[in-house]
Design brief:
Blueprint lengths: L6 E7 L8 E11 L13 E8 L1 E6 L5 E4 L2 E5 L5 E5 L5 E9 L1 H8 L9 E3 L3 H11 L8 H18 L12 H11 L5 H7 L4 H12 L3 H20 L3 H8 L4 H12 L3 H5 L7
Antiparallel strand pairs: 1-2, 2-8, 3-6, 3-8, 4-5, 4-7, 6-9
């Protein structure tokens, strides 16, 4: 049976760059045939492919072939040959994003984007698709400031899925519960969170770091600063307003922690995009 015609819809194509990187291309492909598993492609940039419907396989040079299905997020790396696609006479639907820049190289260097694990299963499409679509939001300005907002939104998405393993329907994993408690109850210490999920602190700390890439305290600090960057770029809040919103002692405490996590002050971060862009 012949496969249906492929339909391509572009959501974003931009030459703009920011100091941290760029999201240069995004779109949807319905009835996609993918990329050849035999004559593998080297793309030259990072890309994400989120499968919305259908199933197939992905192949990364030097790695075994893996089966993929709707709800899987495929990672492509600039210098690594790869191929992916549905089975013979089949198609799938996908959303894709293409991105590059030093901030994503840093994510990779820190092991938060790992070529050894090119597929992440995120079956709750209704949850994750809007976050990816927000990266390509056409309402964002075609300016360096607007591109910085895209980059920050993509980083937030990557942070949200870091170390995530989706639990079975109706069940919540201890890691998911611990992540939620660390972020929603800032007064709770990591030891208290470990007790609340029924795990000894040493095992909790070790397994939490393996699952997220950070020890519990560092994870909480990094995610708070991720939220702070969104408040700065999306809502243009002052340091005092950000500090009050996220539960810091005061704006000086917030500025100090922001510099510890990012290597730059909030003022330097704001200078990457003029107010009003």
């Amino acid at each position: 049976m012949p496969s249906a015609a492929q339909h391509f819809r572009l959501a974003l194509q931009s030459p703009i760059v920011s100091g941290l990187g760029a999201v240069s291309l995004a779109g949807y492909i319905r009835n996609s045939r993918g990329v050849s598993l035999v004559k593998m492609r080297t793309y030259g940039r990072y890309a994400l492919v989120y499968l919305l419907k259908g199933s197939g396989r992905m192949r990364i040079a030097g790695r075994p072939m893996v089966n993929v299905r709707a709800g899987d997020l495929l990672f492509v790396y600039p210098e690594i040959p790869h191929g992916y696609g549905p089975g013979p006479d089949e198609t799938w639907n996908e959303l894709f994003l293409v991105f590059s820049g030093p901030v994503f190289d840093l994510w990779r260097k820190q092991g938060l984007m790992d070529p050894e694990h090119p597929v992440r299963h995120l079956p709750r499409i209704s949850r994750w698709l809007p976050q990816l679509e927000s990266v390509a939001d056409p309402r964002l300005a075609e300016t360096p400031g607007g591109m910085l907002q895209r980059v920050c939104r993509l980083q937030k998405f990557l942070g949200d899925i870091a170390g995530r393993t989706e639990p079975a329907p109706g069940k919540v994993s201890w890691l998911e519960e611990a992540r939620r408690k660390l972020l929603e109850t800032p007064g709770a210490s990591p030891r208290e969170v470990a007790r609340s999920v029924g795990i000894s602190y040493e095992k909790f700390r070790k397994d939490f770091a393996r699952g997220t890439g950070y020890p519990p305290g560092r994870y909480r600090a990094v995610r708070l600063i991720d939220q702070a960057r969104v408040l700065i770029t999306e809502r243009q809040l002052s340091n005092k307003e950000v500090a009050e919103s996220l539960g810091f002692y005061d704006e000086f405490h917030f500025s100090r922690r922001f510099h510890q996590i990012t290597g730059q002050s909030p003022r330097d971060f704001r200078r990457l995009f003029p107010r009003g862009l």
